[in-house]
Design a protein that fits this description.
D-Maltodextrin-Binding Protein, domain 2, 39% helix, disordered C terminus, two-stranded antiparallel ribbon
Length: 327
C-alpha cells in the first residue's frame, strides 16, 4: 500500500466508525463534498459501492465490509513498519494502544505507563478502560494492540502473553464490623448490604456464581460501573464491595479502608490475562511495554493457601512468552 493512499483509507475508516459522511468530515476537518468525492473515487476504482445510505446516515455494504477489514489490517501492519523503523532511532517514537479492566487501570497500568514514559518520553499511549468482551473485540478490529483483562471470555482470537491468578478481596470502611477479621467468607459479607459493579465485570460474576448453591444471598444496595465510585461509597458507609487483589492496591494504602482476603474455601479466583491478537506481530514499542508489564505481573499472582487450591481457575497460567525481545 503506497503511503500516499493512507489518508483516504483513514477517511473511509472514520466514515465507517461514525456512520455519517458529515460527522466524519467534521472530525477530519474536510468538507463533506470533498470527502464524498474521495469515497466515490475509491468506489469507481473498485467498481463496487462501499457505503449505502439509510435514514440516519450511511453503513457499509458487503463490499465495504471486505474493504474496511483490509484497511484496518494494512493500517496495523503499517504501524508495525513505522515501529521497526523507529527501533533504529532508539525507540524514540511510537504509540501503545491498550484496552484494560477498571481494576488494573487505576493503579497497575497507570504506574507502568508513567514508568515507561520516563524512559521513552515521546511514546504516546491510547488507553481504553472497558469490559472484557469489548476489549477482545477491539483487538479483533485492530483498534488496540494489547489487552489486560480479568476473566476474559474464551476466544480463539485472543493470544495470552501471560496469565496470572487473581483472588477477590472484600473492601470496606476501616471501622466496619468485619474489618477485625484477616480473612472473610462470602457468607459473612452477605450479612451486610453490598455495593457491586454491574454484571459485565468478572468479579461480580464470580461472587454470584459462588453463592448460587448457598443459602446466603447478596443484598445489593448499590450497583455502579465505576470502582472509584464504589470505593468512595464504602469508605463512608457500612457497605462492602469486592475487587481483585491487584486492583485493591490504592485502597490498601488509604487509612479509610480495610481490605480483607476472601477465604480460599470460597474459590473466588480467576485469571488476569495480558494478551494480543493471535497471529498479529506487535509493533516494537507495544511489545516492549508488554514485556515490562509481564515481568511485574509475575510477582502479582494470588495463590491459594488451601490444599488442592491450584485448580481454582480452570485455566492454565502462562509464563512470559517470547515476543521478540530480550527477556
Amino acid at each position: 500500500m503506497a503511503l500516499r493512499n493512507q489518508r483516504i483509507w483513514q477517511y473511509i475508516d472514520e466514515v465507517a466508525r461514525v456512520g455519517s459522511v458529515r460527522q466524519a468530515a467534521e472530525r477530519l476537518n474536510v468538507t463533506p463534498s470533498a470527502l464524498l468525492r474521495r469515497i466515490q473515487d475509491v468506489e469507481h476504482d473498485l467498481n463496487a459501492i462501499i457505503f449505502e445510505r439509510h435514514s440516519s446516515g450511511v453503513r457499509l455494504t458487503a463490499a465495504g465490509e471486505v474493504l474496511i477489514g483490509w484497511i484496518r489490517l494494512q493500517t496495523s501492519e503499517l504501524r508495525r513498519v513505522y515501529s521497526q523503523i523507529e527501533e533504529l532511532e532508539g525507540l524514540q517514537r511510537g504509540e501503545v494502544r491498550i484496552a484494560c479492566s477498571q481494576a488494573v487501570a487505576r493503579s497497575f497500568v497507570l504506574r507502568h505507563i508513567t514508568n515507561f514514559r520516563k524512559q521513552h518520553p515521546n511514546v504516546k499511549f491510547k488507553v481504553a478502560v472497558t469490559d472484557h468482551s469489548t476489549a477482545v473485540r477491539s483487538l479483533m478490529e485492530y483498534e488496540m494492540d494489547l489487552v489486560l483483562i480479568f476473566r476474559p471470555l474464551r476466544s480463539l482470537e485472543l493470544h495470552p502473553i501471560m496469565s496470572i491468578g487473581q483472588g477477590l478481596v472484600a473492601v470496606m470502611a476501616a471501622d466496619h464490623p468485619l474489618a477485625k477479621n484477616d480473612i472473610l467468607r462470602l457468607r459473612q459479607c452477605a450479612e451486610y448490604e453490598v455495593a457491586m459493579p454491574d454484571i459485565a465485570f468478572g468479579g461480580r460474576e464470580i461472587v454470584e456464581s459462588r453463592l448460587l448453591s448457598s443459602s446466603a444471598k447478596l443484598n445489593v444496595a448499590v450497583e455502579a460501573n465505576s470502582f472509584d465510585f464504589l470505593g468512595e461509597l464504602v469508605a463512608s458507609s457500612n457497605l462492602i464491595t469486592f475487587q481483585i487483589d491487584i486492583g485493591a492496591d490504592t485502597w490498601r494504602h488509604d487509612p479509610r479502608y480495610a481490605v480483607r482476603r476472601i477465604s480460599d474455601i470460597d474459590r473466588t479466583y480467576g485469571p488476569l490475562v495480558l494478551g494480543q491478537l493471535k497471529g498479529r506481530p506487535l509493533p516494537l514499542v507495544a511489545a516492549k511495554f508488554a514485556e515490562q508489564m509481564a515481568r511485574d505481573l509475575n510477582d502479582c499472582r494470588s495463590l491459594p493457601t488451601i490444599p488442592g487450591g491450584e485448580d481454582w481457575s480452570g485455566e492454565e497460567e502462562e509464563d512470559v512468552e517470547d515476543i521478540g525481545l530480550e527477556k
